[in-house]
Amino acid sequence: MKRALAGIRVLDFTTTIAGPHCTRLMADLGAEVIKIEAADGDLLRSRPPLREGASTTYGQLNAGKQSIVMDLKRPEAMEIVRRLLATTDILVENFRPGVMRRFGLDYAGIKDKHPNLIYCAISGYGQTGPSSGLAAYAPAIHAASGFDLSHIAYQPGRDRPDNCGIYVADYFTGTYAFGAIMTALAQRHTTGHGQMVDVSMLETMLSTLGPEVQMAQFDVPPPGRPMFGPVRTKDGFIMPAIASERSFQGLCRAAGREDWLTDERFAVYGNRRLNWGHLIDELEIWSSTVTTAECQAAFDREGVPSSPYRTVREVMDDPQLAHRGALATVRDHGGEFKVMNPPFRFSDTAVAVGSTVSALGEDTKAVLDAAGYTEEEIGKLAASGAVTLL
Question: Tell me: the pLDDT tens digits for 245-260?
């Protein structure tokens, strides 16, 4: 079965999370992704879990890619890049704006020679504008975008923003970049021309705050207690997501409180929202007398969208994920580990993460061979420091 991006070549100048997430999705769809790294490698190569010096954190973002080590400050390395660009469809980079220009690899500098190239630049604030030169990582973007303060507004009684351990901005931005690149690739089929794709982490995160963007424009009261929150059970908590009249009716039946359907505090959505805290207080009179499993069973019988709170370890054992083939086994020089396949499937095209992770510079010689360099030329490049061979 031919992969969706078979025959597409990607030059990957990205590091850490957002860019590598984007390019791994392309590798999962069959693109040839050549990851260009400095001699010390992507910084995630040193992040735990580590086995025999190999990082699974790095591996899950870079499986299925080739790794070539080059010193982009050397003119010989620039010549290699220029040769590779002649057969490249997509270039992705996530340096701070201006870095690729110093290398002579900015879009303006190469587009005339490579008019069919799709060039994606991922950055914190965009390629131009008063903030474009600022350094950016996901935690700073979470704060800068309003995401953190919007989140804490739904946590009554708290005034200190949450610590950051899950890098939402990176994964969302990488996914937006992937979608934008695929759109540009589709348009190239009709126009014959590539183009620049400029993806901003700041705008990505603001795009997740749809209701908050609307409320910021108008004089409306603060949200107060949110309608989605944990409900206590006899042995823990459960999350019911009551987003429709049907789900509210199911909640009433599950709790044995059909009187709520005519209670003026709850019967109409507007009143229900204002009195949500009272509804949960009354719901917990029942839910706290049953186990989480019993509460979930009652909700399931009545079609109430809900879930117990689970650890990632528990989710990874979910039979639904096994049925979907959601987890794949990947190998690096430290051994085997599991990673997530992309969360989408095609009816007639295979989608799967690559089965191996290249060691730093493992594919340098193979990439140079394929680009037409002779053994003697490769030796000279290595001797000059332009490339590093394993």
Answer: 999 999 999 999 999 9
